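EAL domain-containing protein
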Amino acid sequence: MSLDHPAHARLTADRHTVDQLNDEADALLMVSMQRAQELAGEALELAERCGYEAGVARARMLMGYGHFYLANYAQARAAFEESAAVAVSLGLKALEARNLNGLGITFVTTGQPGLGLEYHLRCLQLVQSMQDVLGQAKTLNNLGNLYLDINDFETALTYHLEALELAHQLQHSVLISSASINTALSYHKLGQYDKALSLNLATLERARDANFKQHEGLILANMARDLLVLGQLDDALNVSQQAVQFSDELGDRENMCDALLTLSQVLMSQNQPDAALVPLRQAVTLADALDFSVRQAEGHRDLAALLEQQGAYQEALSEARLAAAAQQAVMADMLQHRTQVMAAQFKIERLEHRAAEERLRYLELSEANAALQTAQERLAYQAQHDSLTGLLNRAAFEELLQASLQSHPHTEMGVLFIDLDHFKQVNDTLGHDIGDLMLKQVAERLRHSVREGDLVARQGGDEFMVLLRSMRLHTGAEIAAARILEALSAPMELAGREWRMTASIGVAVFPDDGSDITTLQKNADLAMYLAKRERHAVRRFQADLGQAAMEQLELGQALRRALENGELRLHYQPIVDAQTLEPVALEALVRWQHPQLGLLPPGRFIPVAETSGLMSPLSHWVLREACAQLSHLRARWPALRVTVNVAPQQFVEADFADQVSAALHDFGLDPKAVIIEVTEGAVVGDAGFLQAEELDSAGLDLALDDFGTGYSSISRLHQLPARWLKIDRSLIQDLRPVPERRSSRPIVRALITFAHEAGLQVVAEGVEDPQQLQELQDWGCDLLQGYLIARPQSPELLKL
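Structure:
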């Protein structure tokens, strides 16, 4: 049956309109996603009405990309699959390739990178067969994004640079912009922030000229992160605000989440916590809604730190737990995604061989599958075992403990928390290689000290866990712990010397001391902390521990781990010349970057360190870290000095002067670079006085801290081998008389006079208002320190 002329003309016109609508939608994808969706929808409706299958397929493909950019991933996948099926039936290879690419990026974004890799490589094979250079460039760009998602940044950069080179050859403006954005992101992930920022700036100009709104929003968000890392906070604030506005206009929720999170981080870096709270809560809400686990971990972590800073400790703790859960999900997803990609890489190897090599290809694939199985078995073993000792790791132990509690709810079981005593001394004196040998021997002794069926795990560092699956006696766990303690204390041969290792063991019994794994492990940990105070002891958890005592025990144990895990930070407060206000030195002040509670001031943990035997190792860490950072700071300020507070117990150690000299030598510093701060009480007595004289003989300067409190005695000033005297801030705060107490002016003036007579320079601490400054200058005070001059800052923010 023939088609009459008017009907044929109308059909031709309709198809032409469909093509025009699709062309316009295609051009607008990077400019206005909502408008592109509307046009593709109109094209789809008209194409279906007039039976134009090719138009239907293309419209569905364009709607798929629109859904993808708007984070509607289920709709995007359905649209791409329907379009691809029609494209294959019609032999439209270019359209099929675009749908394969769309499916690839959708699977990658939704956490299935193995499938994503398969679709991208199928697309690459198709466009290569068509000699479609544009298609190759797009696919290489997307492959780079896939490797970005599994944190293989070097591979990602290789693909992105190759895609960018092809895009420039084609002079394809959209692809040049896209590949440039992704290349800059790869640079950022590799820590090459200057390169990333430079490329983003050039790309932003091109995107604005071409009116690529979608790209402009992405670039602004990425630039804001570059500027934040580089410390250009004012620019970062401006750019992140623009990124938020663009993302809102475009409806790009994922980019909006990134931009809001960066904006809040910039505001926090500018010490504007109240302003940061609003965008941070918006970012967290959006990350949770999108199930965007990487940003969930980052957002909840930042929110916990900010709430803790504002005193909302309960809410901060809740946010910290959410951050920890999200981070755990990120790590689990990363391992799973890498395994998927590895499996996909082996699976698709056969596509790279020619048909004539089928037999050889089959052999190689068999070998690859065997290697994959071996790799998966090795990964499974590594995921559950400690690499050094071969014992179960913490995660596997907790999983098996949970299974034991669920399958035997009425059976008594014991959980032991074991910590080696003085293990740090082994590493410090014999080196980490010998320390590792000791840990292996300890692990072997633990294996032989438990029954078949019991579990032994390495918790981390020098800490171990044991699960006693069933006990005949109520005291069975303590008896087993005593047996382990005896086995560990037997002498062992290391580096030609005989060593005796002692341990402290905490015991918790199921169900008396806890009915879930979290409570059991926490209570065994607390009991170990009690045993640690006595050394070489076994202690059962005591349910009558007060809440405050338990919090102190937990904080003390966390502080010990903080020293090992690098959670401590140094901030610096300038000490300036009283007359010129020019910086003379910095005082190193320790802070604790707690993983849940955020940045803690020393008042929160120094008392715990003092009662936990941690002041000496804490002071030692501060000394070496201050020397390390000073060696870098002197590149900008060659004459800069640092004052380091030293605990009395460390100051009187026999080798303290050697510790200081070693730190100076290791970091290439002269003796005058560091000033040792101690309280007068540390110098009182023969040991302290002799130590002070030894430091003086070595050319090291000593500062008497907090003078005016405690043991302070003006009569002894001329006897002490010190160079500085630091007047305690309490005396400086009392310069102005108030009805309740007398002014401290006479005391401060006398201290300055007597200190000068004794040949000491005077530092006034706690200077907070101009009147105090003026009076101290009038009285001839040498040096000043306090909030009026500068607050303590991280080394990155120092401006001297």
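The chain has five domains: 1-105, 111-118+129-211, 344-384, 394-545, 564-797.
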